[in-house]
Every structure is written in C-alpha cells, then in structure tokens.
Specification:
The chain is of the alpha+beta class and about 230 residues long. The chain folds into 2 domains: about 45 residues, no CATH class; about 180 residues, no CATH class. Helix content is about 55%, strand content about 15%. It is built from 8 helices and 5 strands. The strands form 2 sheets. The protein has a 3-stranded antiparallel beta sheet. The protein has a two-stranded antiparallel sheet with strand order 4-5. The radius of gyration is 22 Å and the shape is elongated. The termini are far apart.
C-alpha cells in the first residue's frame, strides 16, 4: 500500500480516537498504533505528512523590499507557518509559506490580499506627494509602508502559534531543503521630518482587520475574510 495512503488512514484513526464513544475511541487508537508498528511509521512521520506548502507572488521584485519581506514574516507568524523566498532560474522569486494542514494556504491567501493593499496604498501615497525627486519619494514610501506594517503587526499578533507545529515545519524544511540561505533586507530609517509620513501610514492601515473563523474540527479548512 502507498505510504501516503497508510499515513492518511492512521490520521483518520487518530481522529476517531478522539470520539466520545469510549469503545470506538479505544478501537481506533489500537488500529492506528497497529498500522504504525506494521509499517514502521513514527510520530515524526505523521507530523511531517501534515506539513504543506503554498506560494504567493513577489510582485515582480527580484529582490523584494523590506516591507514585503516583513509582511510575509508577520503573516507566517500569525498562522504558525514559516515564510521563505523561493528562487528559480529565469523566474521571479516567490514567497513560499510552509505550515501544518491548511495553514500554509490560508497564510499565502492572507499575504496576497494584504500585499496588494499595502503596495497600492504605498503607490497612491507616493503619487500624491508629486515629488520630482524619485529617490526621496521612494524613501518616504518605504517609511509609509513600515508604519502601515506597524499597525498590521498589532492585528496579526492576536493569533498565537503552536510550538509543536513549529517543530514539524522546521523538520520538514530541513528534510526537503536543508539549511535555507538567510535573506536580509534593512528597513528605511525614519527621519525627524517623517512624522506626517508615519501618521499617513498608520491611518491607511487603520481599517484593516483579519477575521478567522475556526471550525470545530482542527482538520477542516480555515475560512478567512480580509477587510479594509
């Protein structure tokens, strides 16, 4: 029998072992343990089988700016994932989210929506400045984006992750990819005259909210609504 199918059967038995019916729960647990012994499957194998990946566009940036990287890390933390930048030859890099069950897909979706909002807000703000100095406009746009992120960080901080999930994800990354290369982007240092820029960024993010409705079963897909 295919190993993935076996692991799936074990997961189903483990879910049944949580039944309120004591006899049914005990029988399902014995069946799960029996299959694990028979096919040499350990707890780590079960955890790794739950880890999934989902990707999101980098918006055409070859080297994504700080605010995009910071947003990916915020979203990953909110949904108990790890965020990485995946590079392939002759292709734009992608943000890759790795998490347990459906967390990766939810994180990638959330990032995509928030990324579009932030990029649009930053662009509109820079255009409204009408500065001839494009470098200064870009610098202010970065400060604006960082202030926007500061508010979003408070929003996503409401969601806490699981240490067990983090271990499973780290083990998966080590197994599939080895040691990832660190990608560092430095934030733009605000200047004394940037007070209004920061306020503008905070105001632009003020209406952004995340609503995550969890179903009764942890194995069912999360539903998320992103409002702004």
């Amino acid at each position: 029998m295919d190993r993935h199918k076996i692991i799936d059967k074990i997961h189903k038995c483990l879910r049944l072992s949580e039944s309120g019916n004591a006899n049914e729960a005990a029988s399902a647990l014995r069946q799960a343990q029996g299959m694990m012994r028979k096919y040499g499957i350990c707890q780590t194998d079960l955890q790794l089988a739950n880890v999934q990946e989902a990707s999101a566009t980098s918006g055409g940036y070859y080297n994504p700016p700080y605010w995009a990287v910071a947003l990916s890390e915020l979203v990953a933390q909110a949904f108990d994932c790890r965020a990485y930048i995946s590079r392939r030859e002759d292709q734009h890099p992608q943000f890759r989210f790795i998490g347990v069950e459906y967390a990766a897909q939810v994180a990638a979706y959330t990032f995509t929506i928030l990324y579009r909002q932030l990029r649009r807000a930053r662009r509109d703000y820079m255009q409204a400045l009408a500065l001839e100095d494009t470098q200064e406009a870009r610098r202010r746009g970065n400060v604006f984006a960082q202030a926007w992120l500061f508010h979003i960080a408070r929003v996503v901080a409401e969601y806490a992750g699981s240490a067990a999930n983090r271990v499973a994800v780290d083990d998966y990354v080590q197994k599939e990819y080895g040691d990832p290369t660190e990608f560092v982007r430095d934030p733009t240092d605000p200047q004394a005259r940037d007070y209004e820029v920061i306020l503008s960024g905070l105001r632009a993010a003020h209406k952004v909210r995340l609503f995550v409705a969890m179903h009764d079963s942890a194995y069912q897909k999360e539903q998320i609504e992103v409002c702004a």
